Amino acid sequence: MHTLICGSLAYDTIMVFKDRFKHHILPEQIHILNVAFLVPDMRREYGGCAGNIAYNLKLLEGAPLIMAAVGDDAGLYLTRLKQLGLAATHVRQVPGTYTAQAFITTDLDDNQITAFHPGAMNFSHQNQIGDARDTCDIGLGIVAPDGRDGMLQHAREFRELGIPFIFDPGQGLPMFSGEELFDFVRLADYCTVNDYEAKLLTERTGRSLEELAREVRALIVTLGGSGSRIYADGAMIDIPAVPAQELLDPTGCGDAYRAGLLYGIARGWDWEKTGRLAALMGSIKIAHRGGQNHKPTRAEIAERYRAAWGESLD
Fold first, then answer.
1. Does residue 211 form part of some domain?
2. Partners of 222 in beta bridges
3. Which residues are known catalytic residues?
4. Mind listing the pLDDT tens digit for each residue in 123-173?
5. 262 lies in a domain?
6. Domain total in the chain
7. E strand or H helix at 53, and its extent?
8. What is the DSSP letter of 27?
9. Which CATH number characterizes residue 235's domain?
10. In the Cβ-directed half-sphere of 312, how many Cα atoms lie within 13 Å?
11. Is the model's pTM score more than 0.85?
């Protein structure tokens, strides 16, 4: 049984400015801003929420299936998916577009200036959940950050086809009105947000987390280094964070966490065990740069789960 992951595939170009932005951006001249930063260190990472989630679910030996839209420049990413054993059957290449990409400049204080080009993401609505279901068994899905129209459509299609799914608005949350967000929650079986997104979700919908949790089987809120909290069956379950071997790069930690959620849900685990695995996956990821450069085997993940929680993963 496959897990259908609807979301973005993207290239992340990350540059390091070996100084501080504040030394070059003068507040009194902000209205005529014209700056250039020398960035001798640069790297390009494979990213996007769908790519990151699928990568982590594959590490767990789950069965991810990506549904995304990419551009004319997607050759390297498509080759990578093949090398990882991730099918690109439902990755649509949209002629005349670029694959979504972020250009991130970081200074010595870890401040960031980011430019994001959505590119082919804007055509994600051309992908249909029914097409994926017609080719293989889909037992679970997730609507992760993607093009606006695609997210709206895929949520409706999951519900119409009776496929349980997670609503994961992420950085796409500001695109939607309060009414649209509440509709997403009512269509979904599960919803997951970070603490900032949780605040924005409650403000926009005018409903508390407890009220929103009653609309789904579970509402999951990640809290960074403070762990996560799962609202399910009228209860609130606190999941501690797993100490990381090194705090190197938070990019993609939320996606790694979501892969753990999907794995546990697909296997019918209780929420405490599911949350513990999700927390572990985030901890493993943060010790590596980029969203897809950590490479633990399934056996190594199981051993680290036992060490962290004192119980078997299986």
1. yes
2. 194, 228
3. 255
4. 999 999 999 999 999 999 999 999 999 999 999 999 999 999 999 999 999
5. yes
6. 1
7. helix 49-59
8. G
9. 3.40.1190.20
10. 1
11. yes
